[in-house]
Amino acid sequence: MTLLLQNSPHFAILRDYLRAVGFNEESICSRLDIPALPTLLTSRRKGLESPKESDEVSLLTRLLLLGESINRVDLEVGIATLAVEVLTGLGIVVPHATDTTQLVGAVVLYPVGSLFIVSDRWFAPDGKDYQAPADIVYPAITPNTAEFMATLPVTPCENFLELCSGAGAVALAASAYATKSWAIDITERSTHMAEFNRLLNGLNNVTVLKGDLYQGVDGFTFDRIVAHPPYMPVLHPAQIFYDGGADGEQITRRCVEGLPRFLKPEGCFYCQAQGSDRKGAPLEDRIRSWLGESQDDFDVAVVEKRAQSPKDAASIYALKSKGGGDTVELMLKSLDALGVESMAYGWIIIQRKNFARKVFTVRRFAGQRTGREEIAWLLQWETFAAAGHPAFEDLQELCPIARPSLELHTLHRLKDGDLAPDQFTLHVNDPFSMDCKVQPWVGFLIPLCDGKLTVRQLLEACKSHQLIHAETPLEEFSELLAALISGGFLEVADFRPPHPKDGEALSANAKENLQNQPL
After folding, report:
1. What pLDDT does residue 237 have?
2. What is the CB-side half-sphere exposure of residue 364 using CA atoms within 13 A?
3. Which of 111, 262, 401, 509 would you call most buried, defined as having the most Cβ atoms within 10 angstroms of its Cβ?
4. Angle value at C-alpha 19, between 13 and 21, nearest 5 degrees
5. Could you give the strand order of the β-sheet that contains 157-163, starting from the edge strand earlier in sequence?
6. pTM for this structure?
7. pLDDT at position 441, please?
8. 445: domain CATH number?
C-alpha cells in the first residue's frame, strides 16, 4: 500500500483544495445524475456514465471515484500541477501499471459529510476484471454503512469507540461531538487507511488502533460503542469483512460480550447486523444471554429492518461464494443444525442502566422512516416505563392522544351463516411498523384518546360504559396504555414520537423531561 502515513503539509493542502473546488456529495451526484453517493456502488455495475463536464470536480470524480486513468498532462491542465503533486505525493494517485503517462487512483476518495475518506475500490481501474483482496476495506458509502451512520446519535459524549472500524469513517465523524474517539480494526490494511483518513481530515482527538475488537483499550470505558460487524453466515472462511462464522453472529456476539467491561453506566451500544431467531429463542433474548451474569444491568432493543428465511440466506451465500445447489443444501443443513428459524437484519441497541430499576427487552419492526429519532424515542420511553410504579403514577395524569396514522383492522368470520367481527388489530406505520391484537372495547377507547382526558379519566369512562370490570385497578389500566404507547399506537405530550408530517423529533417538553430522566 502506497498511502503516506506521516505528517505532511500535503494533507492540509489536499483537504483545503477539495473544499475550495466543491468536491462534495451534492456536486458529485449532480454530475453523475444520481441521488446520493451510495447509489454509485450499484449504478456502476450498470455502466454509469462519466461526467460530461470538464471542470475540476468532474475530473476528480473520474479519477478518484470512477477509476478512470487520465493523461498526466491533461490532468495538470484540468486541476493544477500542485493538486496532482499532492495526490501523487500522498499515494492516492499512481502511474498506470502499463502506461506511465497515465495516472490512476490507487484507492477511491470521496466525501462523507464534511469528511474526506479513502478506501479500497470495489472495481478494477478502466473496467478490468476485479478480484477483491481478503482484507478489502469496504467504502464508507455503501448503502448499509450510510444507513448505519445516519441512525447513530450525534449527541455529545466523552469517550466514543468504533469496533470493526474499516476506513474509520464513523469514529472520525464522531470526533465532532465526542471528546475522544477510538477506531479499532483487526487488519493492518484497515488500520492503515483509517490512520490516513485521520491525517487527511486533520483530527487530533481520534486514536486509530489495530486490534481484535476491544484489544488495545483495556482500562478504558466508553459512553458510546458502535459496530457494523461482518454478519454473513459462511461454510468456509471468506473475506474478513464478510465472514461472521457459521451463524453470522460470532463477531456481533463478541462485541456484546465485552460490554460489561467497556460500556459505562448510562452508555449505549449501537450495532447494525444480522442475527437469528432460533427454536424457543428469539434474537433479542439470545442477545441478552450474551451479556452473561451482568445482563440485569442492561436493556436490549432489536429493531428489525428486514427478515430472511434460512433458504434465502443459503441461496445468497451460494451465489456470493459461486456455489451451486449443493452449497445451498449444505448451508441449509448448517443453519438447521443450529436451530435457526429465521434471520433478522437491523439494529441492536444495548443500554446500561445507572440506577436500580427493571431492565427491558423489546423488539420492533422498522417503518419506512424509522431512524435516529425513532430509536431515541424508543429508548427514552422504555427507560421511563421501566422505572415501574413511580413512572405509572406520572402516566396516570397524562392525556394520551391516538397516533394520527393509527388504523383498526377488523377481521370478520362466518358464524351461524353470517359474517361477524372476530378479531381486532391496531396497526401503525410509524414510529415503527406495529400490529397489536386487542379486545373490541379498545375501539371505543381509542377515539376518547384525544388529549383531553387523563389516563385516570379514561379508566372511569370505560367503567361507566361497562366496557371493563368495575374493579379494574388504575395501575393495571395504566400498564395497558403504557403498552399502547410503547407500540406507538398512543402518544403523550412529554414523550411524543417523531411525526412524519412535521419532521420534528421530541417535543421541547419531552427533551427536557428525558434529559432529567436517569437511565
Report:
1. 65
2. 32
3. 262
4. 100
5. 206-210, 178-185, 157-163, 222-227, 263-278, 340-352, 298-308, 361-365
6. 0.90
7. 93
8. 3.90.930.60
CA distances (Å), 289 to each of 108, 279, 295, 354, 356, in order? 41, 15, 7, 20, 20
Looking up cell 440466506, which residue turns up? 313
- Residue 313 belongs to a domain: yes
Domain membership of residue 383 (yes or no) is: no
CB 425 within 8 A of CB 412: no
The terminus-to-terminus CA distance of the chain in angstroms comes to 46
Residues in CB range of 94: below 8 A, 6 or more apart: 2, 88, 103, 104, 105, 106
- Cα distance between residue 118 and residue 102, in whole Å: 21
Q: In sequence order, which residues have a C-beta less than 8 Å from that of residue 255 and are 6 or more positions away?
A: 163, 164, 213, 225, 227, 229, 269, 271
Residue 384 CB neighbour total at 10 angstroms: 22
Q: Name residues whose C-beta falls within 8 Å of residue 511's C-beta, 6 or more positions apart in sequence.
A: none
pLDDT of residue 389: 64
C-alpha cell at 249: 453472529
Q: Look up residue 428 and give its amino acid.
A: V
β-pairing, 263-278 vs 340-352, is antiparallel
Burial pattern 491-506, b for ≥16 Cβ within 10 A else e, equals bbebbbbbbeeeeebb
Tell me the three state secondary structure of residue 350.
strand
Please report whether residue 381 resides in a domain.
Answer: no
Please give the residue range of the domain that contains residue 428: 395-515
Residues 431 and 311 in one domain: no
Query: Count of domains in the chain?
Result: 3
Report residue 218 as a C-alpha cell.
Answer: 483495556
Q: Please list the rounded mean pLDDT of every run of 10 residues in the chain (519 residues).
A: 84 96 95 90 65 87 92 89 93 91 94 96 73 85 93 97 97 98 96 97 97 95 96 72 76 97 97 94 97 97 95 86 85 92 96 92 93 95 83 83 93 89 93 94 93 94 92 91 93 85 42 36
- Residue 456 gets the label, from left (phi > 0), alpha (psi -120 to 50) or beta, of alpha
Are 154 and 114 members of one domain? no
Cα gap 481→400, rounded to integer Å = 8
Question: Amino acid identity, residue 183?
Answer: A
Tell me: do 68 and 105 sit in the same domain: yes
Does 263 lie in the same domain as 233? yes
Check residue 345 and give left, alpha or beta (phi > 0: left; psi -120 to 50: alpha). Answer: beta
- Mapping DSSP onto H, E and C, the string for 22-87 reads CCCHHHHHHHHCCCCCHHHHHHHHHCCCCCCCCCHHHHHHHHHCCCCCEEHHHHHHHHCHHHHHHH
Same domain (yes/no): 161, 53: no
Indicate if 109 and 176 belong to the same structural domain: no
| Any domain includes 440 | yes
Cell 474526506, residue located: 116
Q: Are residues 194 and 342 in the same domain?
A: yes
Q: Note whether 156 and 290 are same-domain residues.
A: yes
Q: How many CB atoms lie within 10 A of CB 414?
A: 9
